[in-house]
UniProtKB/TrEMBL annotation:
Keyword Transport: yes
Family assignment from sequence similarity: Belongs to the ABC transporter superfamily.
SMART domains cross-referenced by the UniProt entry: AAA (SM00382)
Domain spans labelled ABC transporter: 12-241
Regions crossing the membrane: none
InterPro entries for this protein: AAA+_ATPase, ABC_transporter-like_ATP-bd, ABC_transporter-like_CS, ABC_Transporter_VariousFunc, P-loop_NTPase
Keywords: ATP-binding, Nucleotide-binding, Transport
Lineage top rank: taxon: Bacteria
A GO molecular-function annotation: ATP binding
Biological source species: Methylobacterium isbiliense
Descriptive protein name: Multidrug efflux system ATP-binding protein
């Protein structure tokens, strides 16, 4: 793993992270590094530790041992500064239903002390892949994929260095899933590092640069998704699940 403080430091660096809940080992010496413009898929069943990993990155949990750095900052001791480097998009993005996508983006930007003109907000929504005709429509009629794109536009407005995605393609139809994959790749092309916790095996080849298989609280194997054929996907899909973790 690269030096966490040098000029070539990864955007995200996790070294030897261990976490227990009620005496149960959830993360067991997890190592993970992610550089600018990389898309990393963290693959594993419920209970493998994906959510715990995201919570450590956001500073909502503190590792029992090891270290976590986001842009060189420790989210456990400097949570506000570390979170300013990252944007988290949950499985279900909550927007104000009576506001349009454009209005949601401009309002959410103000919460981060940013002022966006209508033209700036429209450009960011375009970059996030939201169709122009949807910019002025109430978010109450948005699909999951459309809401996620507004979330990505917020991340772009904040110039977040790290984008955290939690099950981003669950519930999307094949067309929407392919469209979202293009949105993720576009964000990465602008230098944003993307960590994606997922069960979805079938978009890995087009979305991810690397795939880490999380088992028993550590990366059991790391895979180049370009080499995943149908047999490899089936092997990953049939991997023995773990009990659900916090």
């Amino acid at each position: 793993m690269r030096d966490a403080t040098g000029p070539d430091a990864p955007v995200l660096a996790i070294r030897g992270a261990t976490k227990r809940f009620a005496g149960r080992l959830i993360l067991d010496g997890l190592d993970l590094a992610l550089g600018a413009g990389e898309v990393y898929a963290l693959l594993g069943p419920n209970g493998a530790g994906k959510t715990t990993t995201i919570n450590l990155i956001l500073g909502f949990l503190r590792a029992d041992a090891g270290e976590v750095r986001v842009g060189g900052l420790d989210p456990a001791t400097a949570p506000v500064a570390a979170r300013a480097q990252a944007a988290y998009i949950p499985e279900q993005v909550a927007l104000y239903p009576g506001l349009s996508g454009l209005e949601n983006l401009r309002y959410l930007a103000t919460l981060a002390a940013l002022r966006l003109s209508r033209s700036e907000a429209g450009r960011l929504l375009d970059e996030a892949g939201l169709a122009g005709e949807a910019h002025g429509r109430p978010a109450a009629g948005y699909s999951k994929g459309m809401r996620q794109k507004v979330g990505i536009a917020v991340a772009l407005a904040r110039r977040a260095r790290l984008l955290l995605l939690d099950e981003p393609t669950s519930g999307l139809d094949p067309g929407a899933s392919a469209d979202f994959a293009r949105t993720v790749r576009a964000a990465a092309s602008r230098g944003t590092a993307v960590l994606m916790a997922t069960h979805d095996l079938y978009r890995l080849r087009e979305m991810a640069d690397r795939v880490g298989v999380l088992r028993a609280g550590r990366i059991a194997e790391e895979i180049d998704p370009r080499g995943l054929d149908a047999a490899a996907l089936e092997r990953l899909a049939l991997a023995r699940p773990a009990e659900e973790a916090p």
